[in-house]
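Chapter review: from sequence to fold.
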Amino acid sequence: MYKKRIVLICPEPIRGCIQGIGIRFIEMTRVLGTLHETVLWTCNADIPGDIGVSAEPFPSGDRFTSELARTDAVVIHGHISERYFDMLQSCRIPSPPLAVDLYDPFLIENLQYTAELGEYIFYRDRAVLFRQLSLGDFFLASSEIQRMFYFGIMTGIGRITPQVYHSDRSGDRLIAIAPFGVEPISEITLQAVAGKLKGQVPGIASDSTVIFFGGIYDWYDPETLINILDGIIESFPAVKVVFSVNPNQETTPQGVFKKIRDVADAKEWRDRHIFFIPWFPYRNRFAYLCDVDIAVCLHKPSLETSLSLRTRILDYMNAGIPVIATEGGEGGRILTEAGAALFVPPYNEESLRNAMMSLLEDVVMRRALGSNGRKWIQDNMTWEKSLRPLSEYCNNPYRSSEGFNPNAVATSFCKRISFPRILSYVKRCLKTGR
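The token string follows.
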């Protein structure tokens, strides 16, 4: 195997504070870079110099053409694919073999925002996704249920045909499972990390009990946690609940976050029992997680929940933190298999209160759940293991989209069900009595 050149195109800004997709693309670039020459193209120019991989802004004009001419494969995700496909058209050049990362089901995820931003975003997202599914050669999903979701759409647009099925009955050469991953950290190493919450954030003492929720998106359910907090504080006055402030608020609606902030202010809990800290840099995550006693991951039941993987759960497990989570979803499946969490039904305040009291009262249970989670995640979901299907594809990139034309599929179907054929079929049925 000769060394390939792989270009990865990230749709999220790569800055000091990055979110899930940015983290994923940095790790993809790092893992693939152990075997190949890799470069990460970003949508922003202000790229930090300490991210550990080669990165540069998305090129334009002649440089775009010359860079792709010496590239063996491209990995892409999200809406930046529109820029990529449009550039290919304007430059009149083909794409190298293209791997499309479908880890983030943005078509379903952004349905949450249609009431606020309008239905047009759904039709925009659908067009983006369908174009990706039409032009990509290899695809990555985060779970089996997500994989089946995309297979269904592919069948609808004509990518799944008898020929495709018989050449790849498992479908693994078309869509593979490549979830999020972790960089393992041992308990001893974590204990040596200087924490940035206890004794560091004003209002959080060195002996406080930290309950970590993290960032708030509109599909999460922090309200149920806030609703039981009065009773929890009464029994455990040292409890501190920590939320993270989204670093990209200009592109992410903040409706639920604002509700929680308003409640914290109304009850005079802010900076006493509820804390809103800046989104911390990925490289510093363990300095915050090492101070967390219990992590809470509550969500609203929805299609988004079924199709998404809560990446924060994996970090909690890696850091040995016990979790209280809403039942359901791929994250729930992983936590169940690992024995790393207590589960509560959606919106059930009594169940959440009981689970919270159990963990606050029982340090031994906390340690057991945390230990279970750490062992399972480090055995099963390191970045190298999670990204193995992508690594295998980039070792030997191939095309599967050549010759596919969704318009031709529709035209061919219409020809096959033309009126003369329908009439002939009806006559046969009448004649045979069937």
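Two observations follow directly from the output. The chain has two domains: 5-181+385-403, 187-381. The longest strand covers residues 209-215.
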